[in-house]
Amino acid sequence: MAGVADKARFFLERSVPQLREWEEKSIFSKDEIRSIVQKRNDFEHRVLSPGSTPLEWSSYAQWEQSVESLRSKRCQRLKLRNLNSAHAGQARVLSIYDRGVGRHPASSALWREYLTYMAKVNAAKRWRKTMTRALRMLPKDSEMWVMAADRFASNGDMASARNCFMRGCRFCSSDCTLWLEYARCEMKWLDKIERKKAKGESVPAPRPKNDDDELLLLGSDEENEDDDLALPEPSKAQAKVIDEKATQELQSNPAMNGAIPMAIFDISRRQPFFKPEVGEQFYMMFVSFKKLSVQPRISQHVLDALDEHYPNDPSTCNLHIRQPLLGVSAFAAEFPRNLGTVLQRLGSYLETTTNRAALEKKSIAWIDEYLQLEGLDQALRTVLERTKEKLNAGAAN
């Protein structure tokens, strides 16, 4: 423990100038500063001790954020500006997270919390470097790739977002999460461009392709640094997940006809994770973009593929059953008529599906979603409740 105590004292001593300024300017009282020091000392001993957990590092960083938030509010109330330690609190939080991921490099949750905080405080340069470190450490973490690609897309850099998604998909070929988010990102982009064109606004030109797949953020003044920031390289087997032909197809930018989302779905069908339930997720995600003009074409492409390879699977049957209601509000005038069509299809597909129990379970799930709506017409509620009772009775038998 002697080593732990020495290390804790070292990190605590670094905050002495900040604490003295707080006391001199009456931001915190002596008792409050004493309490802060004691709390920091407890946290330091806890995280530096053998057997510390990522949760303890996270708790430490979050507590420091609460202290920094309180300091900021008191400075505003006291009208204090230009403090010498104005950024010391933020730097301390970043340091804690950095030490934490160094101690627990396999903790995906701690990496994401660290990256979220950097995005919150607009530390773009540090975010870029840390994201690259995280992806090198956890190349098969789908959520990390999504986080990186969404950052590019939110800044309007779809070329880099696509590069990031494609690189990630080569590593994450055993799970559908990243592939779904890639397709969702493309749908959001199509929707955004279509709305801009409808308003007569100019569409931003795509950024040149980054051949090195480096994490370069818009607005960063450090893009020409010599630091090694390349993303992890896939193996030869992983590189074959998206071959050269598929890469060219995904990097093309057809005139708003939805070819890229459909290409993502088609390539995902060749992956080990693909099954009818994944196709169902793709379909439901696509139809959620109900205002996009090419959405019917894209969603029909998915349904046709499922009809071809899994015609009587519960997932395929469920999509055919629900199709008339998708994108229609439960309070719209056409909803009752469409519900009648759905119930007719339900009876038909229950007879032909390969797994009646699974289809009944899926049907009960979407019926429950409508029953939870407040203000639903009482007649419709009665019909749905009776249908649910019949399905429950069939499942019991």
Give the secondary structure arrangement, pairings included:
Elements: H1 2-13, H2 16-24, H3 30-48, H4 54-78, H5 88-103, H6 108-120, H7 124-137, H8 142-154, H9 158-171, H10 177-198, H11 236-239, H12 244-251, H13 259-268, H14 276-287, H15 295-309, H16 314-322, H17 335-352, H18 356-371, H19 378-396
Helix pairs in contact: 1-3, 3-4, 4-5, 5-6, 6-7, 8-9, 8-10, 9-10, 10-13, 10-14, 12-13, 14-15, 14-16, 16-17, 16-18, 17-18, 18-19
Domain U3 small nucleolar RNA-associated protein 6 N-terminal: 12-87
Main location: nucleus
Protein name: U3 small nucleolar RNA-associated protein 6 N-terminal domain-containing protein
Report what the structure shows.
It contains 19 helices and no strands. The termini are far apart.
Question: Keyphrases for this structure?
Answer:
elongated, 0% strand, 397 residues, mainly alpha, 19 helices, TPR-like_helical_dom_sf, nucleus
Can you give me a brief rundown of this structure?
By secondary structure, the protein is mostly helical. Helix content is 68%, strand content 0%.
Ends apart, CA distance between termini: 64 Å
Helix/strand-derived class?
Answer: mainly alpha
Based on Cα principal axes, name the global outline.
Answer: elongated
Q: Flag low-confidence runs.
A: 209-228
**What sequence of helices (H) and strands (E) makes up the elements?**
HHHHHHHHHHHHHHHHHHH
Total of helices: 19
Strand content: under 5%
The helix fraction, in percent, is 55-70%
Q: Please provide the count of β strands.
A: 0
**Kindly state the mean pLDDT as a whole number?**
86
Q: Output the radius of gyration.
A: 27 Å
Main sheet specs = none
Protein name: U3 small nucleolar RNA-associated protein 6 N-terminal domain-containing protein
Family: Belongs to the UTP6 family.
InterPro entries: HAT (IPR003107), TPR-like_helical_dom_sf (IPR011990), Utp6 (IPR013949), UTP6_N (IPR055347)
Domain U3 small nucleolar RNA-associated protein 6 N-terminal: 12-87
